[in-house]
Specification:
The chain contains ten helices and six strands, in the order E-H-H-H-H-H-H-E-H-E-H-E-H-E-E-H. The protein is α/β, with parallel strands linked by helices. The mean pLDDT is 96.
């Protein structure tokens, strides 16, 4: 079958970054922002990580957003719910300063433009552990627009996370897509290449490769974003 839709990971794929540096900067900024409101930084960071892991392991009975806030409230108490506007304020303000630990690869814009010009449906299949406001910001940091994508997965509109295969099934169902007509592009071997088990084609972006489990990658088409553009030009 021909490719009708392309799913892209964001962090480390369309938005080059060192994930560890990004996460450290993110947690540091958030902890500093919340400290004046009575949140001890180290305790808050541990609570956020625990709540994020609960989302990643969730069974889909709640949205990722609801699962996150349910878990962090059970750890930090009801105050955290009352302070949700303060967390949201962080994403509008201090979160934007983290863009300096990310890079902007013009190839990302070229790949997206090429596919849009071909009439391909584009989906931003970024792991939905962030609220939309944070994901939309990172899209801009990558030099792209939210309107480039027919669907962007965020914690508000998703019930599963990578590497749970149900994350991809939910996208396919929502968009009415046949997996054999889809290509998943990502830099994390475990989280992104698992889409191949559904019959999707995959492309492994190696610019910021993540392969924490040391999985075999020899069977995957792979290379830089520049290589991806050549791959797509030959395929579509």
């Amino acid at each position: 079958m021909s490719i009708k839709a392309v799913m892209f990971d964001l962090d480390g794929t369309l938005l080059p970054m060192d994930q560890e540096i990004f996460l450290n900067a993110y947690m540091g900024k958030l902890a500093a922002h919340m400290a004046p409101y009575g949140y001890e930084p180290e305790t808050l960071v541990k609570s956020i990580w625990a709540s994020t892991m609960a989302v990643i392991k969730a069974d889909g009975s709640l949205s990722n957003e609801d699962k996150f806030w349910q878990t962090i409230t059970s750890i930090c108490g009801e105050q955290v719910k009352r302070d949700m506007p303060i967390f949201e304020e962080f994403y509008q303000d201090k979160f934007q300063e983290i863009s300096n630990v990310c890079e902007n690869d013009p190839e990302a814009n070229q790949v997206v433009k090429f596919l849009r010009d071909k009439g391909i449906t584009l989906i931003l299949a970024t792991n939905p552990v962030f609220p939309a406001v944070a994901t939309n910001s990172r899209i801009k940091w990558a030099g792209l627009d939210r309107e480039d994508f027919s669907l962007v997965t965020t914690y508000e509109n998703s019930h599963f996370c990578k590497p749970n295969i149900k994350y991809y099934v939910e996208i396919l169902d929502k968009m009415g897509l046949d997996p054999r007509e889809c290509l998943m592009v990502g830099n994390d071997v475990a989280e992104d290449m698992i889409a191949a088990t559904l019959g999707m084609e995959v492309f492994l972006v190696t610019d910021c490769l993540i392969n924490s489990k040391g999985l075999d990658t020899t069977n995957y088409p792979q290379g830089s974003l520049k290589d991806l553009l050549k791959y797509l030009a030959d395929k579509i």
